[in-house]
Every structure is written in structure tokens, then in C-alpha cells.
Amino acid sequence: MSININFSEINIGMFLPELNKHLIQEDINCYARASRDYNPIHIDEEFAKKTPAGGTIAHGMLILAYISQAMTDSFGLFWLTSGTLNVRFKAAARPGDIIKVQGKIAKIINDNEQRIIACDVLCSNQKGEVVITGETTVKIKVEL
Questions:
Q1: CATH code, domain carrying 104
Q2: What is the count of structural domains for the chain?
Q3: Contact, 47 vs 36, CB < 8 A?
Q4: What is the 3-state secondary structure (H, E, C) of the chain?
């Protein structure tokens, strides 16, 4: 697992490496099997076409996994052991979308033996439509 951030050079306003994911129906179907969430809005194209969504949509938690992947790519084990996430769902993600995950360091708190890094995160599709907005925090142990 590679970490993309040099922790000694973290600054407020710094952008995290961007993650782009091409969402396909098979990803949604795999997530349905893993989560056992077989709601037809996610997996039955004929059913979903008749709903206000007009077609299948991804599980919100699948898109959150993309945020977690981006945070893991940036912060490694620190994210996996101390990360928190607070988000708002804004729009549905659909098969064929390219989901772009972006993050920016919003605040850094130095607290004794750790540094708490707060990031603003945003997921959008290829049309620039916002899918998810939110905030993350991760605690980095400071070497003494």
C-alpha cells in the first residue's frame, strides 16, 4: 500500500491525489452480492427504468468505498485505524459514470502525540454533478 503524502509537508489547502473510478453495472451487482442488498433499483434494469430514477443506481455505500480508497491511498494505515467520515448524499451514481473523488486538507490540529487532519471531500461524475460532499478526519501519530 503506497502512501501519497509526505506527512512532514502537510499544509492546509493541500489537495489529496485524485481518484477516478469508472462505475459499471457489474460493480454494482458485485456490491449487491457482498452487502446482500438486492434492492431492484440497483440490480434490475427493467424495474429501475420504470422508477423516477429512470435506471439502476449504485448503492451509496459503494461510492463511499471510493472515498475510503482515496483516503487509504493518501494516509495508509492511519486512515484504516483512525479515519472518520461525515457525508451528505447529493445525487445518484449510475452505471457508466466516471466518479471523481477529490480531497483537500481543511484543518490541521496538533494535539500532543498526534496530528488530526480534517479534509473536505467531494465525489462528482463526469458531468461535474456532485454525488457526495463531506468531511473526513484522520489521526497521524507524531514521531517524537
A1: 3.10.129.10
A2: 1
A3: no
A4: CCCCCCHHHCCCCCECCCEEEECCHHHHHHHHHHHCCCCHHHHCHHHHHCCCCCCCCCCHHHHHHHHHHHHHHHHCHHHHHHCEEEEEECCCCCCCCEEEEEEEEEEEEEECCEEEEEEEEEEECCCCCEEEEEEEEEEEECCC
What are the pLDDT digits (tens) for 37-92? Answer: 999 999 999 999 999 999 999 999 999 999 999 999 999 999 999 999 999 999 99
Is 135 among the domain residues? Answer: yes
**Structural domain span for residue 125:** 9-24+59-141
pLDDT digits (tens, 9 = 90+) for 125-143: 999 999 999 999 999 987 6
Pairwise CA distance, residues 11 & 18, whole Å? 17
pLDDT of res. 135? 98
The amino acid at residue 86 is N
What strands lie across the sheet with 19-22, from one edge to the other? Answer: 19-22, 98-111, 114-124, 130-141, 84-89
